[in-house]
Amino acid sequence: MPSVSILTRSVLKEVLRWYGAGVALFMALQMTDILSSTVDKLLTYHPPLSKAAFAFLTYLPTIVNRTLVMAVAFAILLAFSRLQQDSELKAISASGVRPLSLIWPLTLPFALVAGLAFLNADRLVPAGLANWERAWYQIYNTTPPPPRQEKYTYAPPGALYYAGRVVNDTGGNVAQLEGIMVQRGNETITASTGSWDTARQTWTLQGAWIVRPGENPRQLATPLVLPQRDTLTPPPVDARQAPTAELRATLARGTLSPTDRRDYQFQLATRYADPLTAIVFALAAGVLGLLIRNRAAAFAGVVVFIVCFYALWTTVPGLARAGAMNPMLAAWLPNLLFLAVAGVLAWRLR
């Protein structure tokens, strides 16, 4: 009987050879996709080569993370199809080695891949996405929009302050307000625009309307100044652009709106779930590869594998943000389903 360690090394060598090819293939495909979707903008705005190159470099960490994971299924399915085609797996089975025993060693190299993907997703990917956004503002020769907060609400005892939008153009102590409503006791005050001075702790409303029970609404001809003692905090950054530590810290402060909180919870969970997809793919693709008999079926398996995972992966963020699914479950659902598929296929091969 051949040594299991020798067989394992042989299979790993074959898989890693295909993994290198898969990384090159998926990197090329994704770069082509990015170029095809942005070439019209580059031709329209004619940015310097340095600006265009910088924009694509900032997106590289995102492409790398996707490639590291997608290439796993490609490598294992193609490697196992080659082993099946050359009857090597049959020879291994005939020698008394259970084919399933070849699956677990596959998790070792791809655990390293998962670790690399986690480190990349922790800081490089968020920073890259933020720089990608800024790079395109430079290409368009425009300035990024000022920080803004939607649907601001503050409810001290006996009052309610609401603004549909808070915009801080200068980053100082004064912000602009839009869509304002203030309730104090039986009095309701509304205004289209106003300003918030956090140094003076006041809201100044322009053209305010005042409504009281039993009285006709009346509009003030002069600005109305109201006390407002809340603090003006920067709006939360896009969760995809926040490092993992910042996601945790922001969630711990408890200042997020329900929608933003779900988004942050989902993004925090994906920082761990997405890198571990490399290990999940190794198990699921390994078991599926033992059932595939030719290379055509292997290519079809790669397509079905990635399309099914991608459909789940792109659907669950919207469900989590809308509150239709628990953010933690949504982040882990693709991995859990593929682990279940691997378990069913392994049961068939037992």
Automatic annotation (TrEMBL):
Record's bilayer topology term: Multi-pass membrane protein
Superkingdom per UniProt: Bacteria
GO CC annotation terms, alphabetical: ATP-binding cassette (ABC) transporter complex
Localization of this protein: Cell membrane
Membrane spanning stretches: 15-32, 52-80, 100-119, 272-291, 298-316, 328-347
Record keyword Membrane present: yes
Gene Ontology BP terms: lipopolysaccharide transport
Keyword Transmembrane helix: yes
Keywords on record: Cell membrane, Membrane, Transmembrane, Transmembrane helix
Any Pfam family the entry gives: LptF_LptG
InterPro entries documented for this protein: LptG/LptF_permease
Coiled-coil region: none
Protein name: Permease
Organism: Deinococcus koreensis
